[in-house]
Amino acid sequence: MKKITVFIGSPGKQATYKAVQEFVTNLKSQMELDFEYVFLSDYNLGSCKGCKLCFNKGEEYCPLKDDRDLLLEKINNSDGIIFATPNYAFNVTAIMKNFLDRLSFVLHRPRFFNKAFMAIVVQGIHGGTAIVKYLENIGENFGFQVAKGCCLTSLEPRTALEQKKITQELSKASVRFRKELMRTTLPIPSFFKLMMFRMSRKSINVILNENYRDYCYFKEKGWFESDYYYDVSLGFIKKLAGRFFDFLGNFIGKQKRRT
Ligand SMILES: Cc1cc2nc3c(=O)[nH]c(=O)nc-3n(C[C@H](O)[C@H](O)[C@H](O)COP(=O)(O)O)c2cc1C
Fold first, then answer.
1. In 3D, which of 102, 105, 138 has the Cα closest to residue 119?
2. CATH superfamily of domain region 2-181
3. CA distance 131 to 134
4. Is residue 83 within 8 Å of residue 96, measured between CB atoms?
5. In this structure, which of 51, 208, 255, 256 has its CB flanked by the most CB atoms within 10 Å?
6. Cα separation of 199 and 231, whole Å?
7. 13 CA distance to ligand 1 centroid (A)?
8. Domain extent listing, the chain
9. Which N-terminal stretch is annotated as signal sequence (predicted)?
């Protein structure tokens, strides 16, 4: 049975929770699932001090002793992840942002390649589409397989028409999420994703060394030699493009090392 964990950035159990509950009901009607709601406000998360020890030495050197690893473990033990947040001042809530800050080292060392991801944003008026995109970008860079998320708009109390639209959006979103959840093979990367991987791995190789956690992580994973983060058969054109991106990454990395 697939396990889904929903991380909720709302300070209370209101519109965002209700939306997620409806999403979960839809998904449960399509397959048997194990669900967990994680209300981030119930956990102890300190605010990042900016020491960058997690980036440079490793996450275990973080001076904050809080629930970060407990929450990370919940992601590790899941097949699918939802980040759900209200729109607060055109952004995720502070609670959700703090959670993302605490996990920022994963952006340097992606790992969740076999897990599905979706962002759900709930708002009163507008600005939420950009937040969905922002969360999707985080999801991609964490390594997740990202299903297109949704932004639900309505001021309370909702009209029947607004509720109908939300119900339809949540129903479609659950189908998209299920598709990623049931994926049996990992996708061939787009040119953009290939470029990001090849240029960053070259820069890490050229600029950093064994004193840095990112360098060791990439080395342990065999990423300095591999075509991509995971086993994938790149076609001729993408193989060629990959070499070009390696060349660019090498060039930029060497320039940076000189400065
Ligand atoms: C501090 C605060 C800031 C908000 N900023 C926005 C905003 O920029 N755009 C918007 O459309 N709605 C905004 N809203 C409305 C919420 O996104 C909306 O009420 C949402 O449904 C709240 O979700 P919740 O009930 O799960 O907390 C804001 C609400 C609060 C409390």
1. 138
2. Flavodoxin domain (3.40.50.360)
3. 5
4. yes
5. 208
6. 18
7. 13
8. 2-181, 191-258
9. none
* Cα 116 to ligand 1 centroid, rounded to whole Å: 26
Residue 238 DSSP class: H
Distance 86 CA to ligand 1 centre (A): 6
| Residue among 20, 122, 123, 125 whose CB has most ligand 1 atoms within 8 A, to mutate | 123
Q: What is the dihedral of CA 143, 148, 154, 155, to 10 degrees?
A: 10
Q: What are phi and psi of 5, to 5 degrees?
A: -120, 130
What is the pLDDT at residue 256?
83
- Is the Cβ atom of 88 under 6 angstroms away from ligand 1? yes
The residue whose CA has the least distance to atom 4 of ligand 1 is 88
Determine the distance separating the centroid of ligand 1 and the alpha carbon of 14, expressed in angstroms. Answer: 11
Neighbour count for residue 139 (Cβ, 10 Å): 22
Asked if 39 contacts 13 with a C-beta cutoff of 8 angstroms, the reply is yes
Decide if 113 contacts 229 (C-beta within 8 A): yes
User: How far apart are the CA of 87 and the centre of ligand 1, in A?
Assistant: 5
| Of 255, 224, 228, 253, the residue nearest 239 (C-alpha) | 228
Residue ID of nearest Cα to ligand 1 atom 15: 124
Record the pTM.
0.97
Tracing tokens 């240029």 back to the chain, one arrives at: 199
Q: In the chain, what is the straight-line distance between the N-terminal and C-terminal CA atoms, in Å?
A: 52
| CA 259/CA 250 separation, integer angstroms | 15
Write down the pLDDT at residue 232.
Answer: 96
